[in-house]
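USER: For my understanding, would you kindly supply a protein sequence with its structure tokens?

ASSISTANT:
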Amino acid sequence: MSDESQRVALVTGAARGIGAATALRLAADGLAVAVVDLDEAACASTVEQIVAAGGRALAVGADVADQAQVQAAVERIAAELGAPTVLVNNAGVLRDNLLFKMSVSDWDTVMNVHLRGAFLVTQATQKYMVEQKWGRIVNLSSTSALGNRGQANYAAAKAGMQGFTKTLAIELGPFGITANAVAPGFIVTDMTAATAARVGVDFEEFQKHATAQIPVRRVGTPDDVAHTVSFLASEGAGFVSGQVIYIAGGPRD
């Protein structure tokens, strides 16, 4: 596939975890991938793996909550890789605490990265999708959107991502753009390890406890999420939009 015809994906929070797995999967699907994270140097491993496998990738450092940085990053991606028509809003942080202990800063940080970040990156990239009359947006929600003790900020942000997604599907659908959300359950990442540490539980024991509650009797991996994102970003998913898909090893309400 020539550079001119190759679709370009932008994945935020792609230096590690779900974001890195998603970037690698989209590259394997034949897309050029902009690997975006707060620290550009931290994206090197993901980019190197893509390039080593014969793909095209670009490491880009940007704070997704900063409008000027987002605009500069998207313009750079368009210039160096091509117009981004696949967007995965994955960047996220945790600032867990019970409501009465949660600081305003903890609330604002989570809202800024998840919601403001998704808004800014989507707003900056949608024009390229509209111009090409084709686009795929996949937002990362979470089972925490249904409510989770100690995560008033994160749960609210992830529930907000679902409303944001459904609205994008309505507004951008006429331009050939789909918008969907994936909502992972227990996925083994640095973030879930941090959650285990927060509650004072050994991570292996934390996983065993989770496994017992999951119908398929295993915890999830970043690749489980990446596979679903891959489908939603594909040509064949053009009639799937405004949906929230729980990747949790069992049903969720």
In short: The chain is about 45% helix and 15% strand. The chain has one domain: 8-197+219-247. The helical segments are 17-28, 44-52, 67-80, 104-132, 152-172, 190-198, 203-213, 222-232.
